[in-house]
């Protein structure tokens, strides 16, 4: 019970962008060229036929959110790490847990590596055999061209998916949804955002949904 209360408290205190993170393709905004209804990638994910992928795109374009949605849609265990702080020992732990999970209940493990371009060659080589044999399905996220930042052997076992910057209309949908959401967003605060303020948020966001949301009037009373 105390763990559930702690999780709920964390959820309330999390930044707005984290609180309202979409959990399904239906809620996701943008990247229609990749996961729009009827697209090959979306069909493959919904059928549980997920290859390892590298998500390449600018900040705030939905890379992490898309990884979460893929895990939810495929009923996979989600093991996220950041290449900034994780090391080989973290990778070994996740691999061992993935082996046990697959043996016990046949559940797939998605290893999500944020900023994968920050992993050195030795770290990338450490996960290669387990991506190759299917122990984990890799989803890497990067803002840098993976052709230069990801080793050739690892890159050859992944599909590179390019995400586009969010446009003004997509950012407008995301911001207004956050303002109206009474459970996880700002709806309970009765926030009002005029056209000029909304345009300012979109402009200052630099096409980054995270900046647009965390720059919203979250402290408005």
Number of strands: 5
Estimate the strand proportion: 5-15%
Round the Cα radius of gyration to an integer and report it. 18 Å
Mean pLDDT: 88
Structural class: alpha/beta
State the helix count. 12
Number of domains: 2
Strand order of the largest sheet: 2-3-4-1-5
Spans where pLDDT lies below 50 across 5 or more residues: 1-10, 216-221
Output the CATH homologous superfamily of the largest domain.
Answer: P-loop containing nucleotide triphosphate hydrolases
Described by strand count, sense and barrel closure, the largest sheet is: 5 strands, parallel
Q: In whole angstroms, how far apart are the ends?
A: 31 Å
The CATH topology of the largest domain comes to: Rossmann fold
Briefly, what CATH class of the largest domain?
A: Alpha Beta
Shape: globular
Instruction: Quickly give the CATH architecture of the largest domain.
Output: 3-Layer(aba) Sandwich
- Helicity range: 40-55%
Element pattern in H and E:
HHHHEHEHEHEHHEHHH
